[in-house]
C-alpha cells in the first residue's frame, strides 16, 4: 500500500525541490536511463544505441502509467464517483517549485521530519489556477498599493471589481441611522438582544433580510417584477451562490456553457470543488461580443459528441467584463434554447443596479414571469457586493423558481452563512427605500461620469472600447499595441502594464476571450484625480510599444 | 410542455447527504414546531439538542455596549466603515487574524503559539471541516472518525466532497476512550476493502462526550498518523469550555512540539471556531489552522466560498484584542459552565438516579439511560427518545444519531437556556421517572450499583475558590431553589 502511494502522488520535499528545481518526473526517468547509457557506451554496439530511444519511450510510457494509475492491480470497486481530477499526480507537478514557504516554520521544532504527504488531487489544480495574471495582479496590488501621497509609484488597482464611487452615501446613512441597527438584533427598539445576533440563525438568511433584499432587487431590476422572499436563499457572497448552484445542477464531469469573455472568477466558482466543466462559447468583436444562439448550439453539440453532458448555461447580464446587456429578444431565444435542450439557465445579474447607459436592463426573472413555462430551469445569482458596493459584507443571493434547488441550496447554505450582525445592519439599510433609491440614482450618475472620463482618456491614446451599458469595466481593444497577434503578445503587454506601468489590468485571455489584445479596466476603484495618472502610464507603454512595432 | 424532472438536478441536490433526515434534526423540528417559552408556551418542548453557549451573553453584551466603535456602524465607529466595507481580501483583516491567533493560544493556556498568517477563515466550523476534507481527500477516500461523533460530520465531510467516513468504534466499557487497537482495526478494515484512508478526525474536547484526550492518547494518535502517513484533523472548537482545571487540556499543537515525538507537521490540521468558545455561532466564524503549506494555501483560496463579513471580522478583532476582557470572559465562562454542568448532572443523579459519563468540558452531558431500555436495541432507544420528545417534552439527541455503538445513551445540552428552563427540564424528567414506577425502580437499583461512571463530586477538582462560591450561591439562591426530594414531589 505504501509503495503504491509513493509512486502515485509524487510530492517531493519542497526543500529538495528548491535545490534541483527540476520536475521530479524527469529526474526519475533520468535515474533509470543513466545506467542504460552506461551499457551502451561500454559495449559500443550501434544496434543497442538505436534500441535505446525505443526503450526510453516504453519506459516513459510505463512510468507515466504507473504514476497515474496505481490502482491498476487493485481496482476500487466501491469508488462511488470518479475523482474530480483523476490525474492528480501529474497536475501537482508543475507548480511545485514556485511554492512560497512560510516563515512560520520557525514556530515548529526543527527536528520534524518531512516526508511526502498526500493531499487531494484538486489542491494542485487550485494552486495552479491562482497563478493566472488575474490573481497575480491582485497580489501585486496588495504588496505595493498606489497612494497619491504615500506611494505614488505603487500599483494602481484596475483589476478588482469594487465600487468606491458612492461609499460616502452609505457611510452617511450609517452615521445617521445605524447606531443600533446591529445591536437591536430583532429585539425591541433600543434594546440589545444578544440572542438575536449571537445565536444560531437560519442558515439561508433571516426572513427580514430576504424581504428587504427582494424589495431592493425590484428597485434595481425594474419595479414590474416582484421578487418573492421565499424563493431567496442568502449566502456568503455571489461566489458561493454560484458554487452552490453548480453543485445543485451538475455532477462531476458535467458541463456548463459559458459565453466568453467571462469573469475569471467563474472558473473558481463553477469548477474548483465541484468537478464540473466549463465549455467556453466564444463571442466575437465583430458581433460586439453579443451572445449567439448558433454558437451555443455548436458548443452543445460538440460536447454531446465528446460524451459530455451539458447541464446549463451560465450568463452574466450585464455582462462581465464587456458591460453589454442582453436584450429581451436574446433572453427569449436563450430560454427557447434551454427548453429545447432541456437544460438550466443561471443568470448572474450582480451588476443589474450598476447600469448607466441608455439601454434597458431586463432580468431573466421578468422573462420567466411573463412566460410561466419552465420556471424551474431558471436561477438568478445576485448580491450586494456590486450594486450596494459592499463586497466585504459578503451577501450573495440565489433566486430560483425551482423548489428542489431551493431546498438543497438551503441546506448547502450551512457551509457559508452570513454573519447575523451584518444581516441586521443590512436589513435596516435596505428597508429605507428612500435611501436606496437615492443611492441607486446617484451611484448610476457617478458611474456614468467616470466611465465617460475614462473612455475619453483612452480615446486620446487611440484605444477604443466596446460600448458598455453597465458594470465597472471598460473593455478595451489594445491589439494595436501587441507585438504578435497572439495570447503571448497579449501577455507581454500585460506584463509591461503590470511591471513597468504598475497597472493591474485583466488581460482578455484570463476571461477566455479568443481574440488577443483585449483588456478590461475597472474604473470604479479610482477617483477622478487618478484617471490622468492611469492614462499617462498607459501612454508611456503605448509609445514604447508603437516604437517597437 | 417539457417539465424539468428531478433527473436534471445533481446527486448533491437530490441525495439526502445533508443528513437532515436523522433523529438529531428531527428533534430540532419537533422543538421548532412547539418551542418552549416561559410565558407564551410553558408546555412547549425545551431545546436540549442545540450545543449553544448562552451562559455569558451578558458579558459580551456589556462589552458591545461599552465599545460602540467595534461594530463600525455607529456614529463613533463609522470612520472605519469605508475601509472595512470594501475589504474583500480572502486573507482576512490582519487585525482579525492576529486577534484570533492570540485567542487560540490563550484558550490553550498559552502553552503554544499560533501564527496569524496561518489562520484561514471559513463559514463556521461546518465550512472549515468541509474545506479541509476538500483539501485532503478525493472522492472515495476516507477519514477514520471515532464514535460517538457529531452527527453533522456526515454532512460536513461527505456530502459535497464524496469522501467516506469509517467509524472507529469506542465502547462504554472504557468510557468511550479512543484506543490504538480500535483505530488500527478500522484502518485495516479499510485497507481490506481497498479504501484509501486519508486521515483521522478527532474532536478534542469530544462532542458528544464532553471529555478531553489525555496527553498519552494524543501522542499515540500522532504516532499512528505518522506511521501510516495520513492526516490528523483535530476539531478543537470546544477548547475553552474545559471547565475543570484537572486534567489539563492538551491541544495537538502542544503535542507536535514535544521532545519525544517524531511528527511530520504537514499531517496536522486544526479546526477551530468561535461559535462554542465565545458563544456566538451567529457570527459564523470558522478557522482552519494547518501546518501544511500547500493545504493552507489551497484552503485560503477556497475560503472565498465562506468568508466572514468584514464588519464582523472587525468587530471580533476589536473584541478579542481587548485582552483584559478576554481573560475575564474565559474565566467567567468556565466557571458558569462548571456550575451549570455540576448542577444539572447532580440534579439528574440525586433525584432520579440518572447518571452521565464523567466529563470535564463541552456544553452537554452524555446521559446514560441504558437501564430504561427494555431491550438493549436501537429500536428501543428510538422508542424511548420519542417518549422523551412527546411526553417529557425535551429535545435530547439519541446516541444512534452520533453513531454510538451501544444503545441507551443521549446527549443533553445544558448551556443554551437560563436557570429556570433548566430547572423545568429537571422537573419534567423527575416527574416522568416518578410516574413510571418500573423506570423508577430500575434506576433505584442502578443507584446502588453505580460503578465506574458514578459522578464523583469530591474528585472533581474545582480549583478556584470562586467557583465553589458561585456554585453555592447558585444552588442556594431563591431564583434557582434546590430541587425537592422525589418523595416530597410524589406527595404533592
TrEMBL record, chain A:
One of its GO terms (molecular function) is pyridoxal phosphate binding. Its EC number is 4.4.1.14. The keyword Aminoacyl-tRNA synthetase does not apply. GO terms for biological process: ethylene biosynthetic process; fruit ripening. It catalyses: S-adenosyl-L-methionine = 1-aminocyclopropane-1-carboxylate + S-methyl-5'-thioadenosine + H(+). Keywords: Ethylene biosynthesis, Fruit ripening, Membrane, Pyridoxal phosphate, S-adenosyl-L-methionine, Transmembrane, Transmembrane helix. Pfam families: Aminotran_1_2 (PF00155). Pathway: Alkene biosynthesis; ethylene biosynthesis via S-adenosyl-L-methionine; ethylene from S-adenosyl-L-methionine: step 1/2. The keyword Iron-sulfur does not apply. It is an enzyme of class 4 (lyase). Residues 71-96 have a biased composition (Low complexity). Residues 156-538 form the Aminotransferase class I/classII large domain. Residues 1-26, 68-96 are annotated as: Disordered. The chain crosses the membrane at residues 44-63. PANTHER family: AMINOTRANSFERASE ACS10-RELATED, BIFUNCTIONAL ASPARTATE AMINOTRANSFERASE AND GLUTAMATE/ASPARTATE-PREPHENATE AMINOTRANSFERASE-RELATED. Belongs to the class-I pyridoxal-phosphate-dependent aminotransferase family. Homodimer. This is 1-aminocyclopropane-1-carboxylate synthase. It comes from Cephalotus follicularis.
Automatic annotation (TrEMBL), chain B:
The keyword Lyase applies. Residues 46-429 form the Aminotransferase class I/classII large domain. It holds the Pfam family Aminotran_1_2. InterPro entries: Aminotransferase_I/II_large, Ethylene_sulfur-biosynth, NHTrfase_class1_PyrdxlP-BS, PyrdxlP-dep_Trfase, PyrdxlP-dep_Trfase_major, PyrdxlP-dep_Trfase_small. One of its GO terms (biological process) is fruit ripening. Keywords: Ethylene biosynthesis, Fruit ripening, Lyase, Pyridoxal phosphate, S-adenosyl-L-methionine. Pathway: Alkene biosynthesis; ethylene biosynthesis via S-adenosyl-L-methionine; ethylene from S-adenosyl-L-methionine: step 1/2. Its EC number is 4.4.1.14. One of its GO terms (molecular function) is pyridoxal phosphate binding. Its cofactor is pyridoxal 5'-phosphate. It catalyses: S-adenosyl-L-methionine = 1-aminocyclopropane-1-carboxylate + S-methyl-5'-thioadenosine + H(+). It is an enzyme of class 4 (lyase). Homodimer. Belongs to the class-I pyridoxal-phosphate-dependent aminotransferase family. PANTHER family: 1-AMINOCYCLOPROPANE-1-CARBOXYLATE SYNTHASE 6, BIFUNCTIONAL ASPARTATE AMINOTRANSFERASE AND GLUTAMATE/ASPARTATE-PREPHENATE AMINOTRANSFERASE-RELATED. This is 1-aminocyclopropane-1-carboxylate synthase. It comes from Cephalotus follicularis.
Amino acid at each position: 500500500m505504501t509503495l503504491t502511494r509513493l509512486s502515485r502522488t509524487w510530492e517531493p520535499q519542497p526543500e529538495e525541490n528548491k535545490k534541483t528545481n527540476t520536475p521530479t518526473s524527469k529526474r526519475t526517468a533520468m535515474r533509470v536511463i543513466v545506467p542504460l547509457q552506461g551499457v551502451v557506451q561500454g559495449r559500443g554496439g550501434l544496434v543497442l544505441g538505436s534500441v535505446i530511444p525505443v526503450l526510453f519511450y516504453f519506459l516513459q510510457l510505463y512510468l507515466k502509467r504507473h504514476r497515474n494509475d496505481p490502482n491498476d492491480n487493485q481496482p476500487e470497486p466501491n469508488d462511488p464517483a470518479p475523482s474530480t481530477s483523476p490525474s492528480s499526480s501529474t497536475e501537482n507537478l508543475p507548480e511545485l517549485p514556485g511554492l512560497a514557504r512560510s516563515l512560520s516554520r520557525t514556530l515548529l521544532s526543527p527536528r520534524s521530519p518531512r516526508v511526502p504527504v498526500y493531499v487531494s488531487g484538486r489542491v494542485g489544480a487550485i494552486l495552479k489556477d491562482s497563478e493566472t495574471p488575474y490573481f497575480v495582479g491582485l497580489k501585486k496590488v496588495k504588496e505595493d498599493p498606489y497612494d497619491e501621497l504615500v506611494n505614488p509609484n505603487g500599483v494602481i488597482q484596475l483589476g478588482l471589481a469594487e465600487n468606491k464611487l458612492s461609499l460616502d452615501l452609505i457611510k452617511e446613512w450609517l452615521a445617521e441611522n445605524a447606531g443600533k441597527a446591529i445591536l437591536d438584533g430583532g429585539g425591541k427598539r433600543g434594546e440589545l438582544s444578544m440572542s438575536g445576533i449571537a445565536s444560531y440563525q437560519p442558515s439561508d438568511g433571516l426572513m427580514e433580510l430576504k424581504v428587504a433584499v427582494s424589495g431592493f432587487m425590484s428597485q434595481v431590476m425594474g419595479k414590474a417584477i416582484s421578487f418573492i422572499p421565499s424563493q431567496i436563499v442568502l449566502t456568503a457572497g455571489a461566489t458561493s451562490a454560484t458554487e452552490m448552484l453548480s453543485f445543485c445542477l451538475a455532477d462531476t464531469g458535467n458541463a456548463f456553457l459559458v459565453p466568453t469573455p467571462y469573469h475569471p472568477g467563474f472558473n473558481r466558482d463553477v469548477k474548483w470543488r465541484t468537478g464540473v466543466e466549463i465549455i467556453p462559447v466564444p463571442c466575437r468583436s465583430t458581433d460586439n461580443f453579443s451572445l449567439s444562439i448558433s454558437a451555443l448550439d455548436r458548443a452543445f453539440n460538440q460536447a454531446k459528441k465528446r460524451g459530455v453532458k451539458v447541464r446549463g448555461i451560465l450568463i452574466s447580464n450585464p455582462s462581465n467584463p464587456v458591460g453589454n446587456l442582453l436584450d429581451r429578444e436574446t433572453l427569449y431565444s436563450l430560454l427557447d434554447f434551454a427548453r429545447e435542450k432541456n437544460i438550466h439557465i443561471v443568470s448572474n445579474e450582480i451588476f443589474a443596479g450598476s447600469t448607466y447607459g441608455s439601454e434597458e436592463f431586463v432580468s431573466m426573472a421578468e422573462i420567466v414571469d411573463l412566460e410561466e413555462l419552465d420556471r424551474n430551469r431558471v436561477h438568478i445569482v445576485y448580491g450586494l457586493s456590486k450594486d450596494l458596493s459592499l463586497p466585504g459584507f459578503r451577501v450573495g443571493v440565489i433566486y430560483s423558481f425551482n423548489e428542489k434547488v431551493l431546498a438543497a441550496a438551503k441546506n448547502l447554505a450551512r457551509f457559508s452563512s452570513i454573519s447575523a450582525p451584518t444581516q441586521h445592519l443590512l436589513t435596516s439599510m435596505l428597508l429605507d427605500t428612500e435611501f436606496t433609491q437615492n443611492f441607486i440614482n446617484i451611484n448610476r450618475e457617478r458611474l456614468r461620469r467616470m466611465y465617460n472620463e475614462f473612455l475619453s482618456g483612452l480615446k486620446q491614446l487611440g484605444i477604443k472600447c466596446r460600448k458598455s451599458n453597465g458594470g465597472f469595466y471598460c473593455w478595451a481593444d489594445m491589439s494595436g499595441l501587441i507585438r504578435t497577434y497572439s495570447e503571448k503578445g497579449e501577455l507581454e503587454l500585460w506584463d509591461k502594464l503590470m511591471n513597468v506601468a504598475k497597472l493591474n489590468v485583466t488581460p482578455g485571455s484570463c476571461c477566455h476571450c479568443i481574440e488577443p489584445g483585449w483588456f478590461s479596466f475597472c474604473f470604479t476603484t479610482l477617483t477622478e484625480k487618478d484617471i490622468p495618472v492611469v492614462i499617462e502610464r498607459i501612454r508611456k507603454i503605448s509609445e514604447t510599444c508603437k516604437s517597437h512595432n | 410542455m417539457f417539465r424539468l424532472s428531478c433527473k436534471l438536478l445533481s446527486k448533491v441536490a437530490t441525495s439526502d447527504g445533508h443528513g437532515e433526515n436523522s433523529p438529531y434534526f428531527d428533534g430540532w423540528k419537533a422543538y421548532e414546531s412547539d418551542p418552549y417559552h416561559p410565558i407564551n408556551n410553558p408546555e412547549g418542548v425545551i431545546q436540549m439538542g442545540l450545543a449553544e453557549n448562552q451562559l455569558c451573553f451578558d458579558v459580551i453584551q456589556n462589552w458591545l455596549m461599552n465599545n460602540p466603535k467595534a461594530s463600525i456602524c455607529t456614529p463613533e465607529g463609522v470612520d472605519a466603515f469605508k475601509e472595512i466595507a470594501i475589504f474583500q481580501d480572502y486573507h482576512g483583516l490582519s487585525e482579525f487574524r492576529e486577534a484570533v491567533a492570540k485567542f487560540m493560544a490563550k484558550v490553550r493556556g498559552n502553552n503554544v503559539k499560533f501564527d496569524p498568517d496561518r489562520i484561514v477563515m471559513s463559514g463556521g466550523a461546518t465550512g472549515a471541516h468541509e474545506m479541509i476534507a476538500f483539501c485532503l481527500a478525493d472522492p472515495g477516500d476516507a477519514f477514520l472518525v471515532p464514535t460517538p461523533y457529531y452527527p453533522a460530520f456526515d454532512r460536513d465531510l461527505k456530502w459535497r466532497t464524496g469522501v467516506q467516513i469509517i467509524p472507529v468504534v469506542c465502547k462504554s466499557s472504557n468510557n468511550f476512550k479512543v484506543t490504538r487497537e480500535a483505530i488500527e482495526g478500522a484502518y485495516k478494515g479499510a485497507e481490506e476493502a481497498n479504501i484509501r484512508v486519508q486521515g483521522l478526525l478527532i474532536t478534542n474536547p469530544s462532542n458528544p462526550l464532553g471529555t478531553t484526550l489525555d496527553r498519552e492518547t494524543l501522542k499515540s494518535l500522532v504516532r499512528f498518523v505518522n506511521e501510516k502517513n495520513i492526516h490528523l484533523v483535530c476539531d478543537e472548537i470546544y477548547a475553552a469550555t474545559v471547565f475543570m482545571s484537572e486534567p489539563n487540556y492538551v491541544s495537538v499543537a502542544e503535542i507536535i512540539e514535544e521532545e519525544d515525538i517524531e511528527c511530520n507537521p504537514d499531517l496536522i490540521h486544526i479546526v477551530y471556531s468561535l461559535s462554542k468558545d465565545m458563544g456566538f455561532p451567529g457570527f459564523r466564524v470558522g478557522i482552519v489552522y494547518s501546518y501544511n503549506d500547500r493545504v493552507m494555501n489551497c484552503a485560503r483560496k477556497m475560503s472565498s466560498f465562506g468568508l466572514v463579513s468584514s464588519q464582523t471580522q472587525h468587530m471580533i478583532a476589536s473584541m478579542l484584542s481587548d485582552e483584559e476582557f478576554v481573560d475575564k470572559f474565559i474565566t467567567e465562562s468556565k466557571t458558569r459552565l462548571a456550575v451549570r454542568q455540576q448542577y444539572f448532572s447532580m440534579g439528574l443523579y440525586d433525584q432520579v438516579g440518572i447518571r452521565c459519563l464523567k466529563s470535564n468540558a463541552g456544553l452537554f452531558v452524555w446521559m446514560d439511560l441504558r437501564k430504561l431500555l427494555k431491550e438493549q436495541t436501537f429500536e428501543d432507544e428510538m422508542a424511548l427518545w420519542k417518549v422523551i420528545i412527546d411526553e417529557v417534552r425535551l429535545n435530547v439527541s439519541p446516541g444512534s444519531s452520533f453513531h454510538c455503538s451501544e444503545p441507551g445513551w443521549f446527549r443533553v445540552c445544558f448551556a443554551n437556556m437560563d436557570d429556570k428552563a433548566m430547572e423545568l427540564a429537571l422537573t419534567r424528567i423527575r416527574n416522568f421517572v416518578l410516574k413510571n414506577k418500573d423506570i423508577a425502580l430500575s434506576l433505584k437499583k442502578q443507584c446502588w450499583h453505580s460503578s465506574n461512571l458514578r459522578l464523583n463530586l469530591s474528585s472533581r477538582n474545582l480549583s478556584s475558590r470562586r467557583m465553589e462560591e458561585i456554585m453555592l450561591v447558585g444552588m442556594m439562591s431563591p431564583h434557582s431553589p434546590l430541587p425537592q426530594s422525589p418523595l416530597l414531589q410524589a406527595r404533592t
